[in-house]
Every structure is written in C-alpha cells, then in structure tokens.
Design goal:
The chain is mainly alpha-helical. Among the domains are: about 40 residues; about 60 residues, Arc Repressor Mutant, subunit A. It contains 4 helices and 3 strands; from the N terminus they run ααβααββ. Strands 1-3-2 form a 3-stranded antiparallel β-sheet. About 10% of the residues have low confidence.
C-alpha cells in the first residue's frame, strides 16, 4: 500500500475517504481469511478422519498441554498479592493469563475458580470474589478430602 501524504496536508474529506477505503480493504481481507479458514478446517477434518489427529503425532500440536514456569496456584497468588485486595474470579483469570500463564482450556475461568475454592491460601471475600488468606500464611495447603467416619455398631 502506497504511503499517503502527511496528515497535515489532507483535508477532512480526504481523511474520511482514506478511512472508508481502508475499512473496505479490511472487510475484503477478513472475508478472504474466513474463506481460507473454512478450507483449512475442512482439511483438518479430513486429516482427523484418516489419521485420528488434526496435527498427527508432532509434539506441540493440538491437544498438547502447555508447560508453565509456576503452578496455577502460584500464578493466582502473585496476581492477588500485586492487587493488594480482593478480585473477581474473571479478573483473576484474565490477569493470570496476561502474566504469561498458558492454558489450552476452553473454560479456564472455571479451573481458576476451582483452584480458589480448593486451597486454603485463598479465601472468599464475597460471592465470586477472592483474596489471599493471611491467616493461612500464604502456604499452598490443598484442602483434604473428607475422611470416612467409622461408626460403632
């Protein structure tokens, strides 16, 4: 795309026309991309039906689990400590991923919520809002499952 004149030398009408042209070009490219994506999806389905996997057995393809430097609990604790207060589960999930935690999960927010509920280092500050539990000392004690109580007969 050719470089246009300086913004100072363009009239308002010229700028609006340039914007309309770029939007039109963008729409064309998006339609073209969608068409190519449909073709790729069709090829992936054919490959899956023949080989059983869309990416074969290559490491790092679909279905491989991302590896992170720290655990999800540690990432959540870092986000909550930087926040200095209680945060909503959705905000926590977004900030954990923004901090570099990788997950292939389609429902990452639910996984974060489960971790917040299951660990004593986090405490509920309200419905869907969590903060670090200072009484627990910030340790990563996972809540133990219920013990079976044997009753005397």
């Amino acid at each position: 795309m050719a470089r246009t004149a300086s913004i100072d030398s363009l009239s308002l009408l010229d700028l609006e026309q340039t914007i309309r042209e770029r939007r039109r070009d963008l729409q064309k490219l998006e339609r073209k991309r969608a068409k190519v994506q449909r073709k790729l999806d069709l090829l992936d389905r054919k490959i899956t039906s023949l080989a059983g996997s869309a990416r074969g057995s290559t490491p790092g393809g679909r279905g491989s689990r991302p590896r992170n430097e720290s655990s999800l609990s540690e990432a959540i604790a870092q986000v909550l400590s930087k926040a200095g207060g209680a945060l909503n589960v959705g905000v926590i999930a977004e900030k954990v991923q923004a901090a570099g935690y990788r997950s292939g999960s389609a429902n990452f927010r639910t996984i974060v919520n489960q971790r917040l509920v299951s660990e004593k280092r986090f405490k509920s500050a309200g419905r869907g809002v969590y903060e670090l539990n200072t009484a627990a000392g910030g340790t990563s004690n996972v809540r133990k499952g219920r013990r079976k109580v044997q009753r005397k007969k």
